[in-house]
Amino acid sequence: MEVKNLKRWTEIKESLDYDSEVRKKMIALSAKLCVAILRKQTDEGISNTDLALKAQVSEKSIVDLTEDDNVPSIEVLIKLALALDMELKII
After folding, report:
1. How much is the pTM?
2. Contact 16/24 with Cβ under 8 angstroms?
């Protein structure tokens, strides 16, 4: 399966060959991480501007997390999680 430069969750979902369990799990994990990041940001009362500065990402990258159609890169997700002092466990 070839995944082109798709930027939206819906585009990836439509093009996804669900025979690829790895890709399916990667998308599910990214979605869970987005939710955890947004929850932690809200709980801590951190503004998008402050989080963007701390994570060294654009403020738009943070706004994009709240839109169902945008798929953030794993690099952005990790930067945001680390900026929020979140612990990522691989089990």
Report:
1. 0.73
2. yes
**Structural domains of the chain, ranges and CATH numbers in brackets:** 20-83 (1.10.260)
In this predicted model, what pLDDT tens digit does every residue of 37-82 receive, in sequence order? 999 999 999 999 999 999 999 999 998 888 766 778 889 999 999 9
Q: Report d(CA 31, CA 72) in Å as an integer.
A: 9
Q: Look up residue 62 and give its amino acid.
A: I
| Burial class of residue 83, CB neighbours in 10 A (0-12, 13-18, 19+) | buried
**How big is the CA angle at 17 (ends 3 and 35), to the nearest 5 degrees?**
75
Contact indicator for 45, 83 with CB cutoff of 8 Å: no
Q: How many CB atoms lie within 10 A of CB 70?
A: 16
